[in-house]
Amino acid sequence: MSKIIGISAFYHDSAAALIVDGKIIAAAQEERFSRKKNTSSFPINAIKYCLDEANLNINQIDYIAFYEKPRLKFHRFIKNHIQFFPNGLKQFIAGIKDWVYTNSNFEKKINSELKPIIGNKSCKIKVLYVEHHLSHAASTYYCSNFEDAAILTIDGVGELSTTTLFHGSEENIIKIKEIQFPDSIGLLYSSFTYFLGFKVNSGEYKLMGLAPYGDIKSKETSDYIKLITENIIDVKEDGSFKLNMKYFQYHIGFNMIEETLWEDLFGIKRRDDKEEFNQRHCNLALAIQNVTESIILKLIQEVKKITKSNNICLAGGVALNCVANGKILNSNIFKNIYIQPAAGDAGGAIGAALAVNYLFIGNKNNQKNKSDIMYDTYLGPHFNDNYILNMIKNVNAKYIYYENFDELIDSISNFIVQGKIIGWFQGRMEFGPRALGNRSILADPRASDMQMRLNISIKKREGFRPFAPAVLNSRTEYYFNLKYKSPYMQFVAQVADNIKLKISDNYSNLNLREKLYTKKSLYPAITHVDFSARIQTVNKESNERFWKLLQCLQSKYDLGLLINTSFNVRGEPIVCSPEDAYNCFMNTEIDYLVIENFIFDKKEQLVVSNNITFEQD
Amino acid sequence: MYRIIHKILQIIWLIPRRNNLLIMKIISFILIVLIYFIIIFPLHLYYKLSTIKKTKVSSTFFINNKNQYNNKSFNDKFI
Question: What region does A534 belong to: left with phi over 0, alpha with psi -120 to 50, or beta?
Fold first, then answer.
């Protein structure tokens, strides 16, 4: 029985996963324990948790699988400087420490990071290194459980690759071809993220949320698309592409882009993060989203042409672009599509361990009877009633305990339709960027002010950001134009015509604020300005308690969907423990907190401290 | 080649760590700059010359890098 710990660390989104005999036992991101969002530090707490979950100690582990190859990264570092000499001298000097000293003996480095777990015992675990894009490919292919699939991985950069086409067949994965650094869709998208005033590596989804405010019919948007495709990126028919590096700095300096060249090209200044959005920003966001989607669709066609498979697996940070995912789904190029729910670097921890299990050790797949081995992403820690009671004692909280869960959801469903906001905490924490009903904030999507209330008072974030719906699987087609399941909130689809409201003819000419305040459907809080929604379909098998709550709302109030947003505030990671949940509840305007069968009413709590200032990201 | 460059840079980087005098830091810094010009520059020229030869327009930017993974694919080594 092989026991493998997969690790992703030292860039962003550190995580650890434990695979025993091909089965994912546990996986968690380090940020949830350290409470530092997107932390790059070694995932020591996540590893401790994984070992505790399986009741193992570190010397029972056979291999540690690291999600990339440090020496191959050094290769990229030098190759890049050879190519762009003499522009990168500063970066060359600054980079020596990381590339030459820190990463020179990685096995020693990892074993020394493990000291808090190993203690003084002499224990040295074999470290194996998995190519970064192979980690992504394995994370999606092996979890999909397809017997044969085309695999496409796209991200900012791994070691050398930025986009890779693979073919998976039974337990094997074969790399077919790739595009190498500095040509990268991920970094192109991040460059626009930076130009539009968001933070690179965490603000990309905000850019995606801003894009629908752009006007696709406007001349400005088509001009921007033309400027991008004629000046910044050269895309071939097979989806391969080359960036015009004179517009970029990330390969030679410490900035993403040559700001003055971008400002000259697009005729606008780089947006400051405090600056109000105008229509030009929205149109530019739409233009780059549009270009990205067209490249991805060409890549999808190319990988189909080569592999002739009916199935496609996607991973890498770009696979978190759910608008593009929705377009792939609608293109019908592939019969089946699987996207790793933790498609970013965190998921690399799972992928690295699975790659070692199947490709290094050569184990056979014994999980074939399952349709998805991610266990609906509920791979994180859970807390029993004793733990919760202890927390309650420590913070002196007032609560009601429900022996009967049906009575609890009956009360909560009443609160929801009264417009109350619920913090919902139960079971094992989700792995990956999405809260899927175990660490969620829930609210009624029918109230027209709910989007603003949640954004400003609860999440403390930009008012334009949309919210996602969690919908009963059986009611999906009533509310949305989506024929497939979307259990991981990975696809965007249009709301169905029967819930759409008539809007004015000049809607496309309205500005951002006017579009935001226009009531577009019967469920305005989950309907984005382009009538789209990022959907989570919920069924009984994946999350019975959450499904029961939705079912209760459906039978009592004919409401088969809810706002489901992650249980955190801006700049903070999603809550992990009951303490985190209670702190977040007490420092935001959440009305009720549900932790397993305990309900906490904000009005009943003794101390309400609104003095915490949340970090701005 | 990458292994050799790595070794040289490692030694240079380690100089001030073994002897923490300011002069050692300055020597290390100068050597790193020199390496950039003595090693990277000639390789850059070679790169430029080799890319001039490849002037034909290609219909793809893909690099064909077919690779079947096996148990030898999991070491951390330079290409």
Answer: beta
